Protein backbone atom coordinates (compact mmCIF):
# COMPACT_ATOMS: atom_id res chain seq x y z
CA UNK A 1 0.00 0.00 0.00
CA UNK A 2 1.38 3.38 -1.01
CA UNK A 3 1.46 6.13 1.60
CA UNK A 4 1.20 9.67 0.28
CA UNK A 5 3.03 12.33 2.23
CA UNK A 6 1.38 15.17 0.33
CA UNK A 7 -1.80 15.83 -1.59
CA UNK A 8 -0.63 18.52 -3.98
CA UNK A 9 2.44 20.35 -5.24
CA UNK A 10 2.26 23.02 -2.52
CA UNK A 11 2.35 20.43 0.28
CA UNK A 12 5.25 18.63 -1.42
CA UNK A 13 7.24 21.86 -1.72
CA UNK A 14 6.55 22.68 1.94
CA UNK A 15 7.81 19.27 3.05
CA UNK A 16 10.90 19.62 0.86
CA UNK A 17 11.59 23.05 2.34
CA UNK A 18 11.22 21.70 5.87
CA UNK A 19 13.59 18.84 5.01
CA UNK A 20 16.10 21.37 3.66
CA UNK A 21 15.78 23.44 6.85
CA UNK A 22 16.41 20.33 8.95
CA UNK A 23 19.47 19.46 6.84
CA UNK A 24 20.89 22.99 7.10
CA UNK A 25 20.54 23.03 10.88
CA UNK A 26 22.14 19.59 11.26
CA UNK A 27 24.96 20.45 8.81
CA UNK A 28 25.69 23.67 10.70
CA UNK A 29 25.85 21.76 13.99
CA UNK A 30 28.34 19.30 12.48
CA UNK A 31 30.39 22.15 10.98
CA UNK A 32 30.52 23.98 14.32
CA UNK A 33 31.71 20.83 16.08
CA UNK A 34 34.31 20.15 13.38
CA UNK A 35 35.63 23.70 13.73
CA UNK A 36 35.84 23.48 17.52
CA UNK A 37 37.74 20.20 17.21
CA UNK A 38 40.08 21.75 14.62
CA UNK A 39 39.02 19.23 11.97
CA UNK A 40 38.40 21.96 9.39
CA UNK A 41 40.53 24.98 8.50
CA UNK A 42 39.33 28.44 9.42
CA UNK A 43 39.06 29.44 5.74
CA UNK A 44 36.99 26.38 4.82
CA UNK A 45 34.86 26.81 7.93
CA UNK A 46 34.13 30.44 7.17
CA UNK A 47 33.21 29.80 3.53
CA UNK A 48 30.89 26.90 4.38
CA UNK A 49 29.39 28.68 7.37
CA UNK A 50 28.57 31.78 5.31
CA UNK A 51 26.92 29.54 2.74
CA UNK A 52 24.84 27.73 5.37
CA UNK A 53 23.85 31.00 7.06
CA UNK A 54 22.70 32.50 3.76
CA UNK A 55 20.78 29.33 2.84
CA UNK A 56 19.17 29.33 6.28
CA UNK A 57 18.16 32.99 5.98
CA UNK A 58 16.74 32.47 2.51
CA UNK A 59 14.78 29.39 3.51
CA UNK A 60 13.55 30.72 6.85
CA UNK A 61 12.30 33.90 5.19
CA UNK A 62 10.33 31.85 2.68
CA UNK A 63 8.86 29.77 5.53
CA UNK A 64 8.19 32.80 7.75
CA UNK A 65 4.40 32.53 7.79
CA UNK A 66 4.38 28.75 8.01
CA UNK A 67 6.69 27.79 10.85
CA UNK A 68 8.88 29.49 13.43
CA UNK A 69 12.37 28.19 14.09
CA UNK A 70 11.81 27.50 17.82
CA UNK A 71 8.63 25.56 17.05
CA UNK A 72 10.41 23.65 14.25
CA UNK A 73 13.29 22.72 16.55
CA UNK A 74 10.86 21.55 19.23
CA UNK A 75 8.64 19.59 16.82
CA UNK A 76 11.55 17.69 15.29
CA UNK A 77 13.46 17.38 18.59
CA UNK A 78 16.61 18.94 17.24
CA UNK A 79 19.44 19.12 19.75
CA UNK A 80 21.65 21.58 17.92
CA UNK A 81 22.59 24.42 20.27
CA UNK A 82 25.72 25.43 18.35
CA UNK A 83 23.83 25.60 15.06
CA UNK A 84 20.99 27.63 16.55
CA UNK A 85 23.48 30.02 18.11
CA UNK A 86 25.27 30.46 14.78
CA UNK A 87 22.17 30.63 12.55
CA UNK A 88 19.63 32.45 14.71
CA UNK A 89 21.51 34.49 17.30
CA UNK A 90 24.92 35.33 15.85
CA UNK A 91 24.32 35.24 12.11
CA UNK A 92 28.04 35.36 11.29
CA UNK A 93 30.77 32.68 11.35
CA UNK A 94 32.80 32.27 14.54
CA UNK A 95 35.94 33.33 12.67
CA UNK A 96 34.41 36.76 12.05
CA UNK A 97 33.41 37.06 15.71
CA UNK A 98 36.87 35.96 16.82
CA UNK A 99 38.64 38.38 14.48
CA UNK A 100 36.55 41.22 15.83
CA UNK A 101 37.19 40.29 19.48
CA UNK A 102 40.91 39.44 19.16
CA UNK A 103 41.78 42.63 17.33
CA UNK A 104 41.70 44.57 20.56
CA UNK A 105 44.46 46.82 19.26
CA UNK A 106 42.35 47.64 16.19
CA UNK A 107 39.77 50.38 16.54
CA UNK A 108 36.13 49.44 17.04
CA UNK A 109 35.43 50.68 13.51
CA UNK A 110 37.59 47.89 12.07
CA UNK A 111 35.67 45.23 14.00
CA UNK A 112 32.38 46.77 12.90
CA UNK A 113 33.66 46.89 9.32
CA UNK A 114 34.50 43.16 9.40
CA UNK A 115 31.00 42.37 10.64
CA UNK A 116 29.47 44.67 8.01
CA UNK A 117 31.47 42.98 5.25
CA UNK A 118 30.37 39.54 6.48
CA UNK A 119 26.74 40.75 6.53
CA UNK A 120 27.08 42.13 3.00
CA UNK A 121 28.53 38.86 1.70
CA UNK A 122 25.79 36.94 3.45
CA UNK A 123 23.08 39.17 1.94
CA UNK A 124 24.57 38.74 -1.53
CA UNK A 125 24.75 34.95 -1.24
CA UNK A 126 21.19 34.80 0.12
CA UNK A 127 19.87 36.86 -2.80
CA UNK A 128 21.86 34.83 -5.31
CA UNK A 129 20.62 31.54 -3.84
CA UNK A 130 17.02 32.76 -3.98
CA UNK A 131 17.34 33.51 -7.69
CA UNK A 132 19.02 30.14 -8.29
CA UNK A 133 16.10 28.47 -6.49
CA UNK A 134 13.71 30.22 -8.90
CA UNK A 135 12.30 32.46 -6.20
CA UNK A 136 11.54 35.11 -8.80
CA UNK A 137 8.39 36.75 -7.45
CA UNK A 138 8.79 40.42 -6.59
CA UNK A 139 7.72 39.87 -2.98
CA UNK A 140 10.45 37.25 -2.63
CA UNK A 141 13.32 39.07 -4.37
CA UNK A 142 12.77 42.68 -3.32
CA UNK A 143 13.29 42.15 0.47
CA UNK A 144 16.52 40.29 -0.24
CA UNK A 145 17.80 43.04 -2.51
CA UNK A 146 16.76 45.63 0.06
CA UNK A 147 18.82 43.78 2.69
CA UNK A 148 21.75 43.70 0.27
CA UNK A 149 21.41 47.43 -0.42
CA UNK A 150 21.25 48.17 3.30
CA UNK A 151 24.32 46.06 4.05
CA UNK A 152 26.25 47.73 1.21
CA UNK A 153 25.22 51.10 2.62
CA UNK A 154 26.88 50.15 5.91
CA UNK A 155 30.15 49.77 4.00
CA UNK A 156 30.31 53.49 3.30
CA UNK A 157 34.04 53.79 4.01
CA UNK A 158 34.91 50.56 2.21
CA UNK A 159 32.83 50.92 -0.96
CA UNK A 160 32.81 54.13 -3.00
CA UNK A 161 29.37 55.74 -3.53
CA UNK A 162 29.50 55.02 -7.27
CA UNK A 163 30.39 51.33 -6.78
CA UNK A 164 28.86 49.40 -9.70
CA UNK A 165 27.24 46.81 -7.40
CA UNK A 166 25.46 49.50 -5.36
CA UNK A 167 24.23 51.22 -8.50
CA UNK A 168 22.97 47.94 -10.00
CA UNK A 169 21.14 46.87 -6.83
CA UNK A 170 19.48 50.28 -6.52
CA UNK A 171 18.41 50.14 -10.18
CA UNK A 172 16.85 46.73 -9.58
CA UNK A 173 15.08 47.93 -6.45
CA UNK A 174 13.58 50.78 -8.47
CA UNK A 175 12.42 48.31 -11.16
CA UNK A 176 10.94 45.95 -8.60
CA UNK A 177 9.21 48.81 -6.80
CA UNK A 178 7.26 49.52 -9.99
CA UNK A 179 6.16 45.87 -10.32
CA UNK A 180 3.28 44.21 -8.50
CA UNK A 181 3.99 41.96 -5.51
CA UNK A 182 3.09 38.78 -7.40
CA UNK A 183 4.90 39.71 -10.62
CA UNK A 184 7.83 37.47 -11.47
CA UNK A 185 11.15 38.24 -13.09
CA UNK A 186 11.83 36.73 -16.49
CA UNK A 187 15.11 35.66 -18.07
CA UNK A 188 14.77 38.52 -20.54
CA UNK A 189 14.98 40.99 -17.65
CA UNK A 190 18.55 39.84 -16.86
CA UNK A 191 18.24 38.71 -13.26
CA UNK A 192 19.60 41.13 -10.66
CA UNK A 193 22.24 38.80 -9.24
CA UNK A 194 24.36 38.13 -12.29
CA UNK A 195 22.79 34.88 -13.54
TrEMBL record:
Transferase keyword on record: no
Superkingdom per UniProt: Eukaryota
PROSITE patterns tied to this protein: VPS28_C (PS51310), VPS28_N (PS51313)
Residue ranges of every copy of the VPS28 C-terminal domain listed in the record: 112-195
Subcellular location field: Endosome
Keywords linked to the UniProt accession: Endosome, Protein transport, Transport
InterPro entries: ESCRT_assembly_dom, Vps28, VPS28_C, VPS28_C_sf, VPS28_N, VPS28_N_sf
VPS28 N-terminal domain sequence ranges: 1-98
Main location: other
GO biological process, one term: endosome transport via multivesicular body sorting pathway
GO CC terms, sorted: ESCRT I complex
Presence of keyword Zinc: no
Described function: Component of the ESCRT-I complex (endosomal sorting complex required for transport I), a regulator of vesicular trafficking process.
Family of this protein: Belongs to the VPS28 family.
Name recorded for this polypeptide: Vacuolar protein sorting-associated protein 28 homolog
